[in-house]
Amino acid sequence: MPHPPRKTSTYTPQFARDLKDIRVGFAPVDFNEGVDPAARADYAKALETIRSLGVQVTEAKMPDFPYAPPSAPSSPRKALPFSNRSSRAARWTNSPTSARSRGSKPDWRFPPTNILKAMRIRALIQEAFHDLLSTVDVLIAPTRYDPAPKITQPLDRRATERPIPATPGLTTLIPAGNLAGLPALSLPCGFANGMPMGLQLVGSPFSENVLLTIGKTFQDRTDWHKRRPPIAAS
Question: DSSP string spanning the chain?
């Protein structure tokens, strides 16, 4: 029996908030030394377009928590997201149609104390974001701070050796938002070295309509979502 279709967020313009009432937080460093020099001009234009929408733009700072990529259960803050992800991977690797199911199966066990600590830390992170998002409605930042890697570039090497700014800005917004369970939207906003760039919007839980309102208005005033990288356009 087929599964029912998943419910997705639907843009409802009739319930959209007035843009002049929406508070948008950003970190100036993210649009200057925080991004690759090749991307700064288009990111600056994207930020000016956001300002031109009539929203209230103000500076914002990330809550002071560690947001390292949750790639392994080596610490309590990584145990919960990794266990969630590994359970999905276990279902895939144990699938009768999976080639991996015919070989040895990975061990996805974790100490319960690590998962409990991770759940408590995630609750603290969610509380910190609740406080931050009571002062602004939306956080904006570059989706990527460096150009996307070329297909010929080794995946285990950084896209650039550019020094990291002393002030981090909102660079950890993606892993932090994942840990806190926040909705997000990425908008095409330019190209750097021929590779596409994006502007991410992150809001509080159930604020999808606010994000879509800003996103639609942004795309009404730009045409980046209609353009393609040179290789895709050829």
Answer: -PPPPPP-----GGGPPPGGG-EEEE-GGGGTTTS-HHHHHHHHHHHHHHHHTT-EEEE----S-------STTSHHHHHHHHHHHHHHHHHHTSTT-GGGGSPPP-----HHHHHHHHHHHHHHHHHHHHHTTT-SEEEEES-SSPPPPTTS-TTS-S--PPPPSS-TTTTHHHHHHHHT--EEEEEEEEETTEEEEEEEEESTT-HHHHHHHHHHHHHH--GGG---HHHH-
State pTM to two decimals: 0.76
> pLDDT by residue (tens digit) across 7-38?
555 778 778 889 999 999 999 999 998 899 99
Helices 208-221 and 37-52: crossing angle in degrees, nearest 10, is 110
